């Protein structure tokens, strides 16, 4: 796969497959997914063997234990959860051909707005091998072709699973008519780089992995990217609250429940008028979180708590960097603000549009905050860690998007569909209507579409 | 406005204004729009004076009559239609704060999905001066800040209208709190080029003008672009139809009603099995359309119609170019296809994803075509010329988009909003739930939101 011609073939065949796959009924797409589910299940031992090989190589290559943990497909029921995930996707409502609008433009001239697949997806993920099953089931369920690139650490697991999926497509082609190019595999970073230039054929790129991966991809392509580079989440402590368990728990959970998560909090903004604000910092320190304090915060905090002057968990903030980065660790940057407006300004300027939160007992302030924050998710009185497709009830998650348009926040199946306008007429021409040379008028009568069934 | 610092100021102030504008109620945003409407109306003579100056300069610069016609704001009631357009936008439903989903994640932990503005828009248009009123009313109605760049031919008209709009913002700031930077003006192409690099602040670019303009902008920026470069629309003549008036009229209207329009047809695909197919070509020739024929089409056509062998309206197709370009004139490229599948393949490969149409009396073939075509609009038995926001009943049109995601096809106010997730809790933390260390389970109960009112 080294010549330019082959990349073009991958991209054009993906687009071609997408245009066939989208015409296959939901019933058939789901039946095929069951066959993929069964093929993976029946060949669990083959997959485990490949996975063991990946694990051994990773251990001998001294990869981090966190990475190795992600690689292991057969620990903590991960394999079964993966298979269950396919069934859950199958059980979801058919996302295609759903009528979103139905309008009579004139007698026997009807405009429909319907959901359709996006087309061809390029999905790049890192070490977790179960992602291939998630992505393939989501793609086929939503009628999109996909080109997949997995992490090199899980290459053996990935290859055998990909082969099983592809064999299933080939073996069932005569029955379902779903081309095998609906799921294509690429292996190297160079493959990705070449395909990222093919914006005429590939409609959406979904990188699932490190910030560095997402940033690199966003910088390299004109194709829309569904994902997030950073998760710089903030919590604003308003003056209208008591420094009680209810609120300190939220801050602790947001920071410590899973600090490597993109939805972990990185910045704490404290209203100067809040009473006993230092309790929040002491609770963080008790939880072994290093608080990076602005000079004025530090001065006030140590004045109130002189015994903590030499604590290893009290540090200075680097103002130029710390409000614009993910710590991904037991660290948090802390700043005073005068009021909710200053908090909003800080967040809209520094946040990565992921998830931000206000803690307050005052409804008016909360509603102003909710309305003012640009981020894809914004919360009032709960942990930032809830920003997650499973927690939102979306089933299998495609990713979390910090873009301003199309899919935002945690993205489920909805993020893989778009819409199309269809008009069904009986010979009408524009020249008969006012404004284009004729006398007829449009009536623009919205019709009830709640009873419309999806195309199938 | 030549230093880099000033561009950064324009972009950051626009973003800042957007974040204030979005918190202003619909009622106030509409009241301000009425004041803008009145300011333009009361100063019609000033605007006409400036418009006359632009017209005189354009005439002395030998600009084309088509361009001069577009420039003239006081012909054919254009000025009154423009003012009426502002009122129509005011009358539209509030697009913001609309609940799209409401889900109980757990008791007293509720997820909302709500419409929000996109943020800061960069709108670039060419000669038609009335566009400024359209764009400003749409932007303010939808809570988006906008940076505007008009065509240099209409600079005088544009400047006075922009001044009137800005004065209205300044004079009413104390009452509505809408910052004057909600509408900012830039004047040169260099200004545009600089702002196109500011993807951290500007959320959407809307070019309204020539293909060349849109192509140039798409090539220059990473900011999402709402628009279309080409409108390569096709009509497929299926075998299941009679070559009667009903169908020839559609082809003629699609080609000749307004050939310069992006929704005019450029390609005619004819099923080989269609009887009397040559009638379509003869009707086109009668309408003074030059038919550019593939060799086999030409041979068959002239065999059936030897008298047309020397017609000036019969030409060869340039296969390498003519199916991938907009003629924008009384020209059409013509090709035989074996069946609907070949027509679909041709269209999905060559069309610009604008609007394509099938003519047929066979419902099954029509539905297969509707389901297979990638374009943002796809029609059965009516003119491609219906692809237009006014005809779709969207009120003032933002543009027509050939993108695969976000806004597609004719775009009204909906294209200027996106959504945001909001969670309102009472102290819930992720660590209490299954999967993150606790025992609690989410209930994911969808709640009725049909009675929810928009935020205001």
What does the secondary structure layout of this molecule look like, with pairings?
The structure is a homodimer of 456-residue chains.
Chain A: H1 4-21, H2 26-42, H3 44-60, H4 65-71, H5 78-91, E1 99-106, E2 109-117, E3 120-125, H6 131-141, E4 145-149, H7 155-171, H8 173-176, E5 183-186, H9 189-195, E6 204-208, H10 211-220, E7 233-237, H11 245-256, E8 265-271, H12 278-286, E9 290-293, H13 295-304, E10 314-316, E11 331-337, H14 340-350, E12 355-359, H15 363-372, E13 377-382, E14 399-401, E15 409-411, E16 417-428, E17 445-446
Helix pairs in contact in A: 2-5, 2-7, 3-7, 5-6, 11-12
Give the mean pLDDT of chain A.
93
Number of domains of chain A: 2
User: Class of the largest domain in chain A, according to the CATH hierarchy?
Assistant: Alpha Beta
CATH architecture title of the largest domain in chain A: 3-Layer(aba) Sandwich
| Low-confidence segments of chain A | none
The percentage helix of chain A is 25-40%
How many helices of chain A? The count is: 15
Briefly note the structural class of the backbone of chain A: alpha/beta
Q: Report the principal-axis shape of chain A.
A: globular
How much of the residues of chain A is beta strand, in percent?
15-25%
Query: What is the oligomer described by this structure?
Result: homodimer
What's the gyration radius of chain A in Å?
A: 26 Å
| SS elements, strand count of chain A | 17
Looking at CATH, the homologous superfamily of the largest domain in chain A is Aldehyde Dehydrogenase, Chain A, domain 1
Largest interface chains and counts = A-B, 79 and 81 residues
Main sheet properties of chain A: 7 strands, parallel
Reading side by side through the largest sheet of chain A, how are the strands ordered?
A: 10-9-11-8-7-12-13
Query: What fold name goes in the CATH topology slot of the largest domain in chain A?
Result: Aldehyde Dehydrogenase, Chain A, domain 1
* N→C terminal distance of chain A: 37 Å
